[in-house]
Amino acid sequence: MKLSTRSRYGIRMMYELALHYGQGFIFLKDISYNQDISEKYLGQLIIPLRSSGLVISSRGAHGGYSLSKAPDKINLYDIVNVLEGSTCIVECVKEPNVCTRVGNCPTISVWRDLDKTITDFLQGITLESLVTSEENSDKKAMYYI
Prior knowledge:
By secondary structure, the chain is mostly helical. It has seven helices and two strands; from the N terminus they run αααββαααα.
């Protein structure tokens, strides 16, 4: 299983918006520069994030993009779910009708448990916790001899 660049870059874009939350709107070109992601690609990612209500936009000289709610109210599952669709790695877990063996499958419980683990993990990481974690990792001790 591998997440696409849509999710990885989308999370980085949302992280950048979280860094600037409460400071007004930020342009895609600034996110592009800060995160080293093509502005054109960010333009494709922002559409579903805005449509889903995770991001708001404003036009004009002071326009741009902002999170629609506080960074502690948006988790990675929200972002991945919008950009990837379902995070489930086996279709029959979410859509049991696609497989005739679901009721007789020896591995279905493994796939359900894995789906729950992935979902719980991504839901447990908010944009706020990413920002806080990054800020704390920048405060490493310096030793001089």
